[in-house]
Amino acid sequence: IRIALTGADLQASCNGVALANWQTHNVKAGDRLQFGFPRSGVRAYLAVAGGFVLAPAFGSVATVVREQMGGLDGRGRPLQEGDCLSCAVSEHGMLRRVPPRYIPDYAEPLTVRVMEGQQRALFDDAQMNRFYASEYRVSTQSDRMGVRLDGPGLHPTEGGIVSEGIPFGAIQVPPSGQPIILLKDRQTIGGYPKLGTVHPLDAFALAQRQPGQLIRFTSGSTNEVNDYREFLRFMHEP
After folding, report:
1. Strands 110-116 and 214-219, how do they pair?
2. How far apart, in whole angstroms, are the C-alpha atoms of residue 65 and residue 79?
């Protein structure tokens, strides 16, 4: 079959030989894939040509542990030693690599672009200036629901709003004053004020920052979508 490796550098190897990240590889029955601790990044992705053969739930074969859905048993159980993930048979093919311009460096300093929303009015100018002028540290309490930050607290004029839908990358501020940037496993609705939304490419990069890494914010605009459009166009090429 053919596989592809992307995301965090987990020191992948096949039969003891190191595998390059951000490209495809041809493997055969009996080969042994191994992964270690991340040298950079947090989450790695292993894809197989043709996909994994599992019973879909809501059109997906993903495992959602928190909601007890999907996966091998249909109830969200995490993978365990001895589990077998069946996959479609595919022919070996020409190796493909992601161009360098699309390979992120998860160790470099990250400045996150913020597209301010309507609820920005709940934060006065002094707080927003402090937000943009400060560094925040990724908390050890971060997960796939959201990146929790440690840094100068923000306190809106209203402690809560009517619950509403939450987009990917929303920056919500709970009563603690420590911002939370919501990711792919976020809840569907929430009632904490949101000062804006993170640019999608920056949200992807933020999701790979390890606890303790520092980030900064800068004011962005919805007009800054050309790089995201170019990214999507490349990733959807046949």
Report:
1. parallel
2. 10
Domains, in order of start, for the chain: 110-235 (2.40.100.10)
Q: Are 205 and 8 in contact (CB under 8 A)?
A: no
Is 216:133 a contact under the CB 8 Å cutoff?
A: no
- Is 175 in a helix, a strand, or coil? coil
Non-local (6+) Cβ contacts of 133 within 8 A are: none
Give the DSSP letter of residue 45: E
Q: Is the pTM of this model over 0.85?
A: yes
pLDDT in tens, 159-174: 789 999 999 999 999 9
pLDDT above 80 (res 228) = yes
Alpha helices in 24-118 (DSSP H): none
Per the DSSP assignment, residues forming a β-bridge with 207 are: none
Is-contact 102 231, C-beta < 8 A?
A: yes
Helix/strand/coil for 111: strand
Contact 123, 154 (CB under 8 A): yes
Rounded distance between C-alpha atoms, residue 235 and residue 219, angstroms: 27
Which residue is listed with tokens 């993170």?
198
